[in-house]
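Reviewers of the previous submission asked for a worked example of the structure-prediction workflow described in the proposal, so we include one complete record here. The input consisted solely of the amino acid sequence. No template or homolog information was supplied to the procedure at any stage.
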Amino acid sequence: MRRKKQLDFSEIQAGAALWQLGKQPDSPRAKRVFRILELFVAGKYFGELSGLLSRYRWANLIDTDGKPYLQPPPDAHLSDEDFQEYSAVRALLDLAARDGGLTRVRRCLHCRNWFMALKRSDQVFCNEPGRFCRQDFHAADELVHETKLATMKENYKIKRRLLLKERERLGLRRRNAKK
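From that input alone, the workflow returned the following structure tokens.
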């Protein structure tokens, strides 16, 4: 049996940041972060990406375990939205620094929002509250709709036959049956 991969803090943090930014995808902050993400996923690490990342100032700090991490400088006086943007970019940088770190960051096939595949490695639809992208995607396909309808009709016929056989076995008569 395959064991589920244990998620680490940076993956969860990146997922939360993408979810927060996805609430307002048309905001300038979200557009900047999503553009950085697009360039990372495409493997275009130079040029435009360098220009976008130069916007952010970082203070290099060391945590209690001796690991370095990035933090906005204390004199930056960031608003909550700016701090959220910094956190999202830092989470993406942390993921990009790891081998295969961005493999779980994807675009939903239905709504095209960015999401972090936290549950399954082959997840292709977002699972945001109030959205049913997987169901909507498959419901929009006419072939799937026709196949589902045919299967439902066949299942109804089988169920009806079994019910009639059971009634006959119990000696019950059908409604409106002639005497």
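The first helix runs from residue 9 to 22. We consider this example representative of the routine output the project will generate in years two and three.
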